[in-house]
Specification:
163 residues, mainly alpha, Arc Repressor Mutant, subunit A, 7 helices
């Protein structure tokens, strides 16, 4: 039987993996799966990360560089892509005309909703072998790792917020 869908071959490890190595391997697969799932939307995982951040907090380009820790030239390219597709709007800050505030457009919100649905499908695939309680526990532990390692800030607090 011939299929057009790419099949991920399971890699057989010849060693006992550490938690860090498992995160690397799972992270690579997740990034690949997210990239594939986002293709129909025309977005990449990096575009999606910028849209999530800007949707949560319309902000200046400089603050965005700091919050997502990306090289300024790469961020400009991402923002140019998103703006060319009508997904974000850059406007002058009324308090400081030298700064631009980045906001998600109406079309950007629509595309973001579609991308969130695609991301949910990937997460369901990624976590198919664990139940909802284990998934919530894993999210909590990963949030603690992200916060305490200095990779991210505020993950645990965000999870504690009521929806």
């Amino acid at each position: 039987m011939t299929t057009t869908e790419p099949v991920d071959k399971k890699q057989v490890l010849g060693y006992t993996p550490s938690a860090g190595m498992l995160l690397v391997k799972v992270g690579r697969a997740a990034e690949r799966w997210f990239g594939e799932a986002l293709k129909p939307s025309g977005l990449t995982p990096r575009h999606l990360g910028v849209l999530f951040q800007v949707d949560a907090h319309p902000t200046s380009q400089q603050a965005l560089i700091e919050s997502i820790e990306v090289d300024p030239s790469k961020l400009v390219g991402l923002l140019n892509d998103l703006e060319a597709d009508g997904l974000i709007v850059r406007r002058r800050d009324p308090e400081d005309r030298r700064r631009h505030i980045v906001e998600v457009s109406k079309l950007g919100r629509t595309r973001l909703e579609a991308a969130e649905k695609a991301a949910a499908v990937v997460e369901d695939r990624l976590f198919a072998g664990i139940d909802a309680e284990q998934r919530a526990e894993l999210l909590g532990v990963l949030a603690q790792v992200a916060d305490r390692s200095g990779i991210l800030e505020g993950c645990v607090d965000l999870l504690a917020r009521p929806d």
